[in-house]
Amino acid sequence: LTPILLTPHTVHVWRANLDEYTSTPVLSPDEQLRAKSFVRPIHQKRFAAARSFLRHVLARYLQQPPQTLTFQYTHYGKPYLPGSSVYFNLSHSQQWALCAISLEEKIGIDIEEINQEKDVEKIAVRFFSDYENQLLHETPADKKHEAFFRIWTCKEAFIKAVGEGLSFPLKEFDVHIDEHSARLISIYQDEKEAQQWSCVVLDPTENYAATVVAKTAIKKVELFEI
Ligand SMILES: CC(C)(COP(=O)(O)OP(=O)(O)OC[C@H]1O[C@@H](n2cnc3c(N)ncnc32)[C@H](O)[C@@H]1OP(=O)(O)O)[C@@H](O)C(=O)NCCC(=O)NCCS
User: Can you give the pLDDT at residue 2?
Assistant: First the structure.
């Protein structure tokens, strides 16, 4: 396969439908064990498909067979490839998986199903900052769920880019969203720090929200399907 070229300030986002994804098995022994640890077969299959997808995507950039990639994990469980200048992050929700690839180390992506049944204002009180709660409160009722999941995916993608899991307090940074975009407005009340980051709202598929976040000016996002 032809190698794919990544340039600075560009993020490549790959999408896969995990329930339709078929490829040669390429999982490492520890990944096979993890797949087996899921109770429900559908979750076993989706985990295996997501890891397979991730390996096949990375193989295109690294020009290396997918089964030869060796992931390492940070203290917080973020997978990475030691010694590589290609950075990635994976997210899945039901059958959909997205993988972001970048030359920027601090890269995060999140996809969530827009669940209309959730009491979003109640959940927001627990997880969102005062600023975000106010923003959600002012959003018209028919747009509230979408707004909630847009803010949520932006927060989650930022947390995933930082890579410290939920040890990073969710209420200590503010996200602003409008119809088409999202941005970080402050991190620990520091607006200058927030300006170092950029967020791009994606439109992954009907009824899902997704955002990619990186600590760089993202000038272009290219979408790929596998
Ligand atoms: C693990 C976590 C990083 C993301 O979890 P998630 O949103 O449930 O799941 P996603 O599908 O988006 O991401 C999972 C993938 O991220 C990667 N990942 C794991 N740990 C990570 C970390 N510390 N940082 C970044 N990425 C990580 C892995 O590739 C993982 O998938 P895999 O194990 O199947 O390969 C963590 O932030 C978490 O548990 N978040 C959910 C809790 C919450 O309350 N969020 C509120 C948002 S307002």
Answer: 80
